[in-house]
From TrEMBL:
Organism: Stentor coeruleus
Keywords: Kelch repeat, Repeat
Ranges that cross the membrane: none
Keyword Repeat in record: yes
The name this protein goes by in its record: Uncharacterized protein
Compositional bias ranges of the Basic and acidic residues kind: 9-60
Chain positions covered by the region annotation Disordered: 1-62
Length: 351
């Protein structure tokens, strides 16, 4: 791995609030993702929403899902095979040792950094706006440690991969992707960072998947439906993908899950055509926030996908409409905190 390379980055000390997304840059993204005139009928087949607040149910204690318990136990005792073979679990192991506690999202998604783009090229990370010619809103990021996010694709070099330190803004080069991509998604597959789908610079949708392990990118089983503008979330040893589009005016409603080395299309469909959704997991549920919908506008709607029953439910809406180019969330005190595309702060109570 190359030594960290200090990038020339402009830090904007003043954070400016922006109006709801309707800029030409975002519309360009949606021009590839515009949805068919009729996709609302899918909603009729979805079980009616339960609008009661989650707090009406008995309070739940967040615990590791069963698929993670063994790995969590090994991390807790410092099993050398786990720490050695899963490089990105090392910060988690340090946290467990120092704090003696576990947050159920950490094995799948670090949850201490939130961020999204305030415009085409400026990336808001926590409270700072960071500008670097190497990345833009078509790039994708995932938090891989307490101090770093991994950025892939987009910009001029759609195969690029590097780590960005969120404190110093220095970069560390990593091996390039095999297939260049933009408007893809990043999540965890088998406890390693992964890139899924997206599109080529010419706009053609991709179905390829790559996983980072042993210092290299490895091709993995392709998804069943090519798509870009999709969102993903891992739950233990499974990875779920939602939404996106495979061409203009052609959204993908089908949900796929990666399990035991293959992608499986499940019976449940996303209730409506959406791209750029915010997605995160809490216990056995995956929350799906906002997104750019079939009406050509950002959405306030929130759906929850029950990973056990494989069904969608409606939940209380966002306070304002939003879509997301990145999927970086902070989960704390029963609240999800993040930024939408254009840098507006988003908070959503899980109670």
């Amino acid at each position: 791995m190359a030594e960290p390379i200090e990038s020339t980055i402009e830090i904007h000390s003043k954070v400016t609030k922006h109006e709801e997304v309707h800029s030409s840059e975002h519309e360009h993204l949606i021009s590839k993702h515009e949805n068919p005139e009729s996709s609302l009928e899918e909603t009729k087949h979805i079980e009616p929403a339960k609008e009661e607040p989650i707090s009406s149910e008995p309070e739940k204690t967040l615990l590791p899902s069963s698929g993670l318990e063994n790995l969590y136990s090994k991390c807790l005792v410092g099993a050398e095979d786990v720490i050695k073979n899963h490089t990105f679990l090392q910060p988690l192991h340090r946290q467990i040792k120092t704090q003696g506690k576990f947050h159920e999202t950490l094995l799948s998604n670090y949850n201490t950094v939130s961020g999204d783009y305030t415009n085409d090229k400026v990336f808001k990370i926590l409270e700072n706006d960071v500008e670097n010619s190497r990345f833009n809103w078509k790039s994708r990021a995932i938090q891989v440690s307490d101090d770093e996010i991994m950025i892939t694709g987009g910009a001029e070099d759609s195969t690029q991969v590097f780590l960005l330190n969120i404190h110093t803004y220095s970069t560390t080069e990593l091996p390039s992707l095999h297939i260049g991509r933009e408007l893809h998604c990043m999540t965890w597959i088998n406890f390693s960072p992964a890139v899924i789908g997206g599109c080529c610079i010419n706009g053609q949708a991709l179905d390829s998947v790559e996983i980072f392990g042993d210092g290299l990118w490895h091709s993995e089983a392709s998804i069943n439906h090519k798509r870009y503008g999709l969102s993903a979330c891992s739950t233990g040893n499974k990875t779920w993908i939602f939404g996106g589009a495979n061409s203009r005016n052609s959204p993908v409603l089908k949900v796929e899950v990666y399990d035991n080395g293959i992608w499986i299309e499940i019976n449940a469909h996303l209730p409506r055509g959406l791209v750029g959704m915010g997605v995160f997991k809490v216990e056995d549920e995956i929350f799906i926030l906002g997104g750019f919908d079939e009406t050509g506008k950002n959405s306030r709607k929130v759906y929850v996908f029950d990973t056990k029953k494989e069904e969608f439910y409606k939940r209380k809406s966002l306070s304002s409409s939003a879509s997301f180019s990145q999927n970086l969330w902070v989960l704390k005190d029963n609240t999800a905190c993040g930024f939408s595309f254009r840098g507006n702060e988003v908070t959503y109570s899980l109670e």
